[in-house]
Specification:
Chain A: GO terms for molecular function: 2 iron, 2 sulfur cluster binding; metal ion binding; oxidoreductase activity. The complex is a heterodimer of chains A (about 575) and B (about 300). Chain A is built from nine helices and 34 strands. With about 575 residues, chain A is α+β, with helices and mostly antiparallel strands. Classes of the chains: A alpha+beta (about 575), B alpha+beta (about 300). At the A-B interface, loops of A face helix 3 of B.
């Protein structure tokens, strides 16, 4: 039977020992080249051997532990999801589009790495695999058609003990099972497993290697006498239409994911940790350092929480929630009523707090629960061996959260406990020092602290673009006194927004379905494109440049400066 | 059997050799658009080219005896020929004629990739810190700032201006990173010219040209031209510098798949930094070039 590009059979494509940590192995199955690499957490990734950006082989890339870095332009792809987390040419942007490399199913079993051309069949161990301790033999590459190699293996059997042909190009010969990896139409690799651990491993390896070498020589001599089969012609799948263009600002999606609370624990006084995982044990979507998720709470509220995870860590998301006595039903519900095993809806991760990895100096300043996004940033910088300083301010030492996570980092971590306001300001000034080229500071903490650090940094000559922060709450007083018309270009509708009503409310009253979340201009869910008219921005979501561009608006709080606004909705 | 080149490609002038490296009275053979070409120089130093008919490298020949010749011209130190009807003049590089410049050919390097892939790599700044580490760029300075790209109707070329990049050692005398400014021209489907701020004279620019000889659809030779204002470096230094740069590009280019440049916008994922490459791909598409590219399915 000729080989098919869509053959769903699982084949071994490498030995486990081909994948030491921090290495990328180049494999091939059914004509397709594969980049195979093991992450520091042990997970094995089998990806199409081609970066989506410019087609360079990923097998010449760098395994950074939890991310693979392309050699050509340094794009980083996350363990498990193969999602792009960083594009160095645009260090200030969070890659907003979902750029994901093609990946193949993978299973590690019996000392071999198994993969298939597609997900059509679940992995099933070969007949008789269970209950045996298998010893992997040295692989033997053969330049011959895979079906001829199977036939050649079967002929090795003695006459009185015919070979047992197993499904999926496998042959059982006594105590050994040989699998033929169809590399291409004219190439194969024989991968053998021996039942039980041999007394003399070297002798067993040598014995089988000699047998297979002789078989290879016979098969290759026979193959040379036949016309070479036409190589398989795998095609590279096209990227989505969305990826083929370059949007200025991506409008976030409203997708939600259902997760289960896998673990809930007290991380420190007043800080509760939540570990959220996919219900079926699949990995969660790719995120970037500084990203947050919206958590839909049982009482209908939606709150934003930063992820604390490190690179390529997609088995679960870990967030930290502040236990506030004065909280009005937001975090309070999570802390008091949500228990382990409960199911929650969350948004896909979004990033309004991107981390540049092109700094000569990175300073991370956390106040209280503000440690969460900075822990994620520190973990990413740590894996890439980039230098950083993390300063963590709390009122009492019992309130220092995520201590064990911070303890394993290699950067400079300073905890500052119980300082008064003036002492904190003095410490921040001392830590920052005068601004120097390519220095960046990231702040997360209470509003008063954000303002203090911004002012202190500005006074020391730090430009705005070097000071990074994120608001989760809009503490500004919203001025809703204006009245104006909004023209909805795509809906062909003109609405009047009176004083005291928001654009969002007015649109909903007119029967439009418009996504929103925080409704205080902080989360970015209601982001809408502006075609005409000047925007009176009152949100804390858009940055200065985005506001100045006058191309988008948060309809939950922002308004028109003039009598009319044309929106792309 | 390779397919015949498209008429635009067939009628272009193509670079085939550094003129002063062609032996006088001896044959050198090379490939152009899948055809074997024989080259030599007469005693007058003028290059002669013809379609090879079994000639071997190093055979002795009197160029006078070659009757069925291909058109040839010498420009920018290189010999150019054409397998069709050469219509257009070769693109201008006016700086080449300035008397105080050091003009030199810096070698010809074979690359197992299509010529358009090599042009695109020449236009690309994002790879400097990763491929030309500590020469043309270095981490952590990886940002490609906004620049301007236009396709000049009048000159029929792609022009990228205000291209800026932070370079660790833009000049031999530099001790700290400094931002350099580039202008890129693509005046020929397989040639590009770069203008780079000149350390010796702020009012002038060093010129580096890359001329790709499309040998087959998936292989090419890169011929390099430098036209520099540099009174201190030796020619050996300057050549070594360019050969180091191309030696670094070669293994990356040879690991690029597919080897032909895909013109369908959905075949790869561009970012803002790739504006010039996108303009170049569109320009090739509009011209109707199909050699060395995967044309967009219509």
């Amino acid at each position: 039977m000729p080989l098919s590009l869509s053959d769903p059979t699982w084949y071994p494509i490498a030995s486990s020992e081909d994948l030491p940590f921090r290495h990328v192995y180049q494999g091939q199955l059914l004509g397709r080249e594969l980049a195979v690499w093991r992450a520091d957490d042990g997970n094995v990734n089998v990806w199409e051997n081609r970066c989506l950006h410019r087609g360079v082989r990923l097998s010449i890339g760098i395994n950074e532990g939890q991310e693979l870095k392309c050699q050509y332009h340094g794009w980083r792809y996350a363990n498990q999801s193969a999602g792009c987390t960083y594009i160095p040419a645009h260090p200030a942007d969070a890659p907003s589009r979902r750029i994901e490399n093609r990946k193949y199913p993978v299973r590690e079993a019996f000392g071999l790495i198994w993969s298939a051309a597609n997900d059509d069949q679940p992995f099933a161990p070969f007949d008789g695999a269970q209950g045996e301790d298998w010893f992997p033999l040295r692989p033997m590459p053969v330049d011959a058609a895979p079906e001829d190699v199977v036939a050649g293996l079967a002929r090795l059997a003695p006459d009185d003990q015919p070979a047992d042909l197993l499904p999926g190009m496998a042959v059982r010969l006594g105590a050994a099972v040989f699998f033929v990896q169809p590399v291409d139409a004219g190439r194969a690799v024989i991968r053998g497993l021996l039942a039980g651990q041999p007394h003399d491993a070297m002798a067993a390896l040598r014995h089988h290697n000699e047998t297979l070498t002789k078989l290879r020589d016979r098969l290759e001599r026979a193959a040379a006498r036949k016309p070479a089969p036409e190589p398989l012609q795998p095609v590279f799948e096209k990227v989505s239409a969305e990826l083929s263009t370059m949007p200025d600002i991506a409008v976030p999606r409203g997708n939600t994911i259902t997760v289960v609370v896998k673990r809930k624990w007290k991380s420190a006084e007043g800080v509760i940790g939540f570990e959220l995982a996919d219900r079926d044990g699949r990995y969660l979507p790719t995120f970037q350092p500084g990203a947050h998720i919206d958590v839909h709470l049982p009482n209908g509220l939606v709150r934003q929480y930063s992820l604390t995870n490190g690179p390529g860590d997609l088995n679960s998301y870990v967030i930290g929630v502040k236990q506030e006595s004065a909280s009005k039903g937001g975090s309070k519900v999570l802390v008091e009523t949500v228990r382990e095993g409960d199911v929650l809806a969350i948004s896909e991760p979004r990033n309004n707090f991107p981390l540049r990895r092109d700094a000569t100096r990175t300073v991370l300043i956390a106040g209280g629960i503000g440690i969460t996004p900075l822990l994620s940033m520190a973990r990413f910088l740590d894996k890439s061996s980039l230098k950083y300083e993390l300063h963590y301010f709390t009122r009492q030492s019992e309130r220092l959260a995520f201590s064990s996570e911070l303890d394993v980092l290699h950067g400079s971590i300073d905890r500052h406990v119980g300082l008064g306001r003036e002492a904190i300001t003095a410490k921040v000034a001392e830590v920052l020092g005068p601004y120097q080229f390519a220095n960046h500071v990231y702040i997360c903490g209470p509003g008063t602290m954000l303002e203090m650090v911004q002012q202190t940094a500005s006074a020391l000559g730090w430009p705005d673009e070097a000071i990074h922060f994120e608001y989760f709450q809009n503490d500004k007083v919203i001025d809703a006194s204006s009245a104006f018309d909004v023209e909805l270009a795509r809906s062909a509708m003109t609405l009047h927004v009176p004083a005291g009503r928001t654009i969002l409310e007015t649109m909903r009253e007119a029967g439009l379905t418009v996504p929103s979340s925080c409704e205080q201009g902080a989360c970015g869910t209601c982001l809408t494109g502006v075609i005409e008219g000047e925007v009176d921005h009152q949100d804390v979501y858009l940055n200065k440049t985005e506001k100045a561009s006058n191309t988008c608006i948060m309809t939950c709080v922002s308004r028109a400066k003039g009598p009319r606004l044309v929106l792309d909705i | 059997m390779p397919k015949a080149p498209d008429p635009i490609t067939r009628d272009l002038w193509h670079v085939v050799a550094a003129t002063n490296e062609l032996p006088i009275g001896q044959i050198e053979t090379t490939l152009l658009l899948d055809r074997r070409i024989a080259l030599t120089r007469g005693i007058d130093g003028e290059p002669v080219a013809w379609l090879a008919t079994g000639e071997e490298n190093g055979d002795e020949i009197d160029s006078e005896t070659v009757l069925d010749r291909l058109p040839v011209r010498t420009a920018y130190g290189y010999t150019w020929t054409c397998l069709g009807t050469p219509s257009a003049e070769l693109f201008p590089i006016p700086e080449f004629a300035e008397p105080d410049r050091v003009n030199m050919s810096c070698g010809s390097i074979g690359i197992h990739v299509s010529a358009p892939r090599a042009v695109e790599n020449f236009l690309d700044m994002g790879h400097f810190p990763y491929v030309h580490t500590d020469i043309l760029g270095s981490e952590p300075h990886t940002e490609v700032k906004e620049y301007d790209v236009e396709v000049s109707e009048e000159r029929d070329e792609v022009l990228a201006t205000k291209c800026k990049f932070m370079q660790p050692r833009a000049a031999k005398s530099a001790t700290t990173a400094m931002e350099v400014e580039y202008v890129y021209r693509v005046p020929h489907p397989f040639c590009s010219v770069l203008y780079k701020s000149c350390p010796e004279d702020e009012s002038r620019r060093d010129v580096i040209g890359i001329f790709l000889q499309p040998m087959t659809e998936e292989t090419c030779r890169a011929h390099l031209l430098q036209s520099m204002i540099d009174s201190t470096s030796t020619i050996t230094d300057l050549r070594r510098f360019q050969q180091t740069i191309f030696g670094q590009d070669k293994p990356i280019l040879e690991n690029q798949y597919p080897k032909k440049l895909p013109l369908d916008p959905r075949s790869e994922t561009p970012i803002r930094a790739d504006k010039s490459a996108i303009a170049y791909r569109r320009w090739l598409s509009q011209k109707g070039i199909t050699y060395g590219v995967i044309p967009q399915a219509s």
